[in-house]
Design goal:
Helix content is 0%, strand content 71%. The chain is an all-beta fold. It has an eight-stranded antiparallel barrel. A hairpin with a 5-residue loop joins strand 5 and strand 6. The termini are close together.
Length: 127
């Protein structure tokens, strides 16, 4: 399955998720960050999902975690680093929609080492 939608937070923009197995996926973001004067943000994470952590009466509520990369593109201060994503996603049973919340600590390695945190809430349509 493929999920496409929006994420609101830091950063804010488009979100996509490509399921590779029943419990793994590649998550991508193409967004704008409003911090530090504003910059373009691109990330991709490889995620593992645990569907058994919470039981719900309808739909699915997996927690997920994973690792990936982040590029922060700014005219005079572009940065590249590592992200560790942790989140929860509610996948509706009756409609092709999912809602998610995630936090992702980031460590940039280039051009210098710097720590940051990404996070937000979002919604995606499931194809």
């Amino acid at each position: 399955a493929v999920e496409v939608g929006l994420i609101l937070g830091e950063p804010t923009g488009f979100s996509a998720k490509f399921w590779t197995t029943t419990n793994t996926a590649i998550d991508m973001g193409l967004a704008w960050s409003f911090g530090d004067g504003g910059h373009f943000h691109l990330h991709a994470d490889y995620l593992f999902h645990n569907f058994n952590f919470f039981e719900v009466d309808s739909g699915n509520l997996p927690i997920y975690f994973g690792i990936g990369g982040r590029a922060r593109i700014q005219d005079d201060d572009s940065r590249f680093g590592l992200r560790v994503a942790i989140g929860i996603e509610y996948i509706l049973e009756s409609h092709p929609l999912s809602f998610f919340f995630e936090v992702a600590p980031v460590v940039d390695f280039a051009p210098e080492t710097e720590a940051d945190v990404n996070g937000g809430i979002g919604v995606r349509y499931i194809f």
